[in-house]
Write a structure and sequence with these properties.
InterPro entries: AB_hydrolase_1 (IPR000073), AB_hydrolase_fold (IPR029058). It is a single chain. By secondary structure, the protein is an alpha/beta fold. The protein has a single domain, classed as Rossmann fold, CATH 3.40.50.1820. Helix content is 37%, strand content 15%. It has a seven-stranded mixed sheet, sandwiched between helices. β6, α8 and β7 form a beta-alpha-beta unit. The chain is globular, with a radius of gyration of 17 Å. The two termini are 33 Å apart.
Length: 259
Amino acid sequence: MTPSLPADVEFLRAGDPAAPVVLVLHGGGGPQTVAPLVSHLAETHRVLAPTHPGWNGTALPDDIRSVGDLAAAYLDRLLADRMRDVTLVGSSIGGWIALEMAVRAAGDESSAGVVRAVVDIDGVGVVVDGEPIADFFALDPRGLAEAAWHDPERGYIDPAALTAEQRAIQQSNGQTMATVAGRSMSDPSLLSRLGAIRIPALVAFGESDRIVTPAYGRAVADAIPGAEFAEVPAAGHLPHLENPGATWAVIDPFLAASR
């Protein structure tokens, strides 16, 4: 039975309802990490940006216990809502969800035409020999900033500066991420399944990302027939936060060409 999203899952909606649809999928840090993507893409698209079940204090259903479950649930929602030609844009774990959705849509006749294109921004999820994913759960705030940001001083968050509510949400998000993505944040089968994707695909990585390196991203792009790969300069794991102008310069031409 296909996992289902809770009826009350929060979808931020932005942009022209008549424009092409983009589904923006956030990473482990929560929906605020993709806010610049939502704002920028809303200028030319109808944007749907859900808060994943289990993040930001929401409930995690018993039947969603993996990224595959999340991907199946989102794809099922697009089908139920009669969505067509949706572009998937995912950041970090969201990139993994987007790729899994694209693979599943490619192998399901009932999903034909639902997904038009996919953009993976510094996504985790695959296993690449010689390019391990950083152990996110072992990193302290300083280590996370060093691994995830081109300029670690911009990315460092002093735990003492957080409110009790912020610390609780951060801890809860981490627990949900561990449940859904696992400590390895990868699926050993995914890389070999990416060849099923036959829609336009862009893999974009910050040049200074050390959570997953640009070499890791190139391996992902190489596994998808016809996929494009691009590095975003002066940026780490969240290039749309750290260097948005350079990120738009990479993403916008791809989106325009795939419309």
